[in-house]
Design goal:
Low-confidence stretches: 3-63, 239-244, 282-295
Number of helices: 13
Strand order of the largest sheet: 1-3-2
Largest sheet: 3 strands, antiparallel
Helix content: 40-55%
Mean pLDDT: 75
Length: 295
């Protein structure tokens, strides 16, 4: 067992619920999964009912500061449809309602514009753009859709995208894997196995996310590597048993181990097949993508 795996496994706390106590999130250096903002008490009310709902959904800072909070709040409302397409967004009104400066409003709208959610034009102002203009591969938009009314569509689309990306990445990785990365993947499978036995869903999911991110990164294709963030977001916001990675179980663990073995053997076809099996562990997936063919 590697030092990394031993350290992480010893740090894991046995639990039946997968929940952690105080300090549990700092057990190992993974990024925290995004958590949807929750409704807070309204600090103001106004004549505009739609902007009023934006304020009522305001939540904790998530460590993003005023600028990040405003991006989060407006982004959620646009993606949920509460601020519909072609809806004008008046910076002065937003600043007054949220009690933030013009600079904060301006920078927040620039971020949303970069994501394709709004457009700003001279003599027209800032308006919400239709869904067809959004950058649907942006991790924030993936998160906002996953926790909004479009969550079922988002889960299906993410599953379809993963079905396209990850089997190919597994095949390519079999020819590009480095020994240190191979060991890291083995460590992740070992950690997942220990977490499964302890009922620790959080440790399992974090090791799982690192496994899939590493696999794409060693595929030797820079364009695929840029998509690794999408897969990571998909694992974090899946919200249900859409694929074998979404819920800890023995079958999922076995398929992960098969992928590692295939990579170690340099067998691209076996690695691809194991990944396809992993992504169809749950029957629900067969309504989205076909099961792998037997050769």
């Amino acid at each position: 067992m590697s030092t990394l795996a031993h350290t992480m496994m010893n740090a894991a706390r046995p639990t039946d619920s997968g929940l952690v106590g105080p300090g549990g999130l700092d057990r190992y250096p993974y990024a925290e999964a995004p958590v949807p903002d929750r409704v807070g008490s309204p600090s103001w009310e106004g004549p505009d009912p739609e902007l009023g709902r934006v304020g009522r959904r305001a939540a904790g800072s998530r460590g993003r500061g005023l600028h990040g909070q405003l991006v989060q709040q407006l982004g959620q409302m646009i993606v949920s449809g509460d601020l519909g397409a072609d809806r004008p967004l008046v910076p002065e009104e937003i600043g007054q309602r949220f009690e933030v400066s013009r600079t904060v409003v301006r920078e927040s709208l620039r971020v949303l514009e970069a994501k394709g959610l709004v457009s700003a034009r001279p003599n027209v102002g800032t308006r919400v753009r239709p869904v067809s203009d959004w950058n649907l591969l942006d991790p924030d938009i993936i998160e906002w859709r996953a926790f909004g009314p479009q969550r079922d569509d988002q889960r299906r689309e993410l599953s379809e995208l993963r079905w396209t990306i990850e089997p190919l990445a597994a095949r390519l990785a079999a020819g590009h894997g480095r020994e240190d990365v191979q060991q890291r993947l083995s460590d992740m499978v070992e950690i997942m196995g220990h977490a499964l036995g302890q009922g620790d869903a959080l440790t399992f999911s974090r090791a799982d996310a690192e496994f899939h991110t590493l696999l794409i990164q060693i595929a030797g294709n820079r364009m695929l590597e840029h998509l690794s963030g999408i897969v990571s977001a998909a694992l974090q916001v899946s919200g249900g048993p859409v694929t074998g990675c979404d819920r800890p179980n023995e079958t999922s663990l076995t398929q992960h181990a098969r992928i590692v073995d295939a990579l170690a053997a340099g067998d691209g076809a076996a690695a691809e097949g194991a990944m396809r099996q992993l992504l169809t562990v749950h029957p629900e997936v067969e309504r989205v993508v076909p099961a792998p063919r037997e050769h």
